[in-house]
Design brief:
Helix 4 links the parallel strand 3 and strand 4. This protein has 264 residues and is an alpha/beta fold. It is globular and about 60 Å long. The chain has 3 domains: 79 residues, NadA-like (Rossmann fold), CATH 3.40.50; 95 residues, Rossmann fold, CATH 3.40.50.10800; 60 residues, Rossmann fold (3-Layer(aba) Sandwich). Helices cover 43% and strands 15% of the residues. The protein starts with 16 loop residues before the first helix and ends with a strand. The strands form 3 sheets. Strands 2-1-3-4 form a 4-stranded parallel beta sheet, sandwiched between helices. A 4-stranded parallel beta sheet has the order 6-5-7-8, with helices on one face. The protein has a two-stranded parallel ribbon with strand order 9-10.
Length: 264
């Protein structure tokens, strides 16, 4: 797998190429013995991605696991991802290598907080990002991804009317992106009925203007793509704002020699 320059360099494994190959073969043999499919999130180390059966985003991986005939799912990701896989594959055993592997965004809201928020806005419909716990999803009317969040909100207004109140969370930056894309950012009356939870991913929020400006200066010919989870300090700058799936599709369609991806 080709190594790409990043703002934050990945940790060094300390293993030789031969040791990595030996461990990878051992993992693959054990997976075959246990009838397991191995999923590796896009954010995992290259060594894990290379040995996985499927690599992708959290929801795409859960769907791939559900379609697999394997009876066991080994999910190399964080806790909410394994929970999502279990929701889509209730009769399969889901394993996660590290039970403490958490997500700061998913941890920014729990079920009790959501129930309290709902009680403060009776009649509101709840739209929660897939990056949430199973308990939060159980209290949610609509579960969205970064690629369909705008479409889900527009569907709600089409079905229930433009007056429908919405609770959107937990990512404030994705919520701000939805506001801009749907046009309610400049409509105070409608915007007042679109409530956004004050949560964020600390990694995405940590991408600073200096990081972006420096990288763009070093690669002036590169196309710049940014994930809507990134904070407003980066969202105001790009020539292109896109979501994970559309970003990937654009990257596959275009023949640009280099791209700058603002993501975690």
């Amino acid at each position: 797998m080709q190594e790409l320059p990043t703002v934050q360099a990945p940790p060094v494994s300390g293993l030789s190429t031969e040791e990595i190959a030996e461990l990878s073969a051992e993992v693959r043999a054990l997976a075959a013995e246990r009838d397991a499919v191995i999923l590796a999130h896009n954010y995992q180390l290259p060594e894990l991605q290379d040995l996985a059966d499927y690599v992708g985003d959290s929801l795409g991986l859960s769907r791939a696991a559900a379609a697999s005939e394997a009876s066991v799912i080994a999910f190399c990701g964080v806790h909410f991802m394994a929970e999502t896989a279990s929701i889509l594959s209730p009769h399969k055993t889901v394993l996660i290598p590290d039970l403490e592997a958490g997500c700061s965004l998913a941890d920014s809201i729990d079920a009790d907080q959501l129930r309290t928020w709902k009680a403060e806005h009776p009649g509101a419909l709840v739209v929660m990002y897939v990056n949430t716990s199973a308990e939060v999803k159980a209290e949610t009317d609509y579960c969205c991804t970064s690629s369909n969040a705008v479409g889900v909100v527009e569907h709600i207004w089409a079905e229930h009317g433009a007056e429908q109140e919405i609770l959107f969370g937990p990512d404030m930056w994705l919520g701000a992106f939805v506001e801009r894309e749907t046009g309610i950012h400049d409509d105070p009356e409608r915007r007042a009925r679109f409530h956004i939870w004050d949560g964020e991913c600390h990694v995405h929020a940590g991408i600073r203007p200096d990081d972006i400006n420096r990288t763009r200066a070093e690669h002036p010919e590169a196309e710049f793509l940014i994930h809507p989870e990134c904070g407003c300090v980066t969202q105001v700058q790009p020539s292109l704002t896109n979501t994970e799936t559309r970003k990937g599709n654009r990257g596959r369609r275009r023949g640009s020699a280099s791209r700058i991806l603002s993501n975690s």
